[in-house]
Amino acid sequence: MILITGGARSGKSNVAEKLAYQFAGQQGNVLYIATSLLLDDETERRVAIHRKQRPCHWHTYEGYRNLGTLINEKAPGYQVILLECITTMLSNLLFDYAANKPIETLCFATLEKKVNWQLDQLLTACHTSQCHVIIVTNELGLGIVPENRLARHFRDIAGRANQKLAECAETVHFVVSGIDIKIKG
Q: What does the domain layout of the chain look like in residue ranges?
């Protein structure tokens, strides 16, 4: 498993896609797992741009739940699986598990346990997969501490998830201003 991390708009996607090309070749079989939900026009435009950048022969799966099961099922048919992105997956799962409850009533420890179950399933699948798995995530810990309680807990949960991913990854890349820095492996 390869982890690509960095800030928003740092060039992570480009690095991940270049690695996918390296492993699969020009006509290789790649599964792109997109975790974004198309909730508004802006997100739809961003997703459309990402789709145009990818080769048309790459397959796309759009979803964020039970990705470990998906990778177990799909990996034998692909040379590379590229998952973009963990941060969005975590956000979507947290909102699912919070079930529209008021923020003040949420037990973030319980929510994190539920998210970690999904993350552990994903990591197990990546570890046993015979294909290359490239995972993209955002580094959220380089900025100021958010004033908002929800944002603070999300940053903490994402930070711990990223640490777990980095520990399990064979290779970790940190992308800054489009520059790819290999920090592990």
A: 2-184
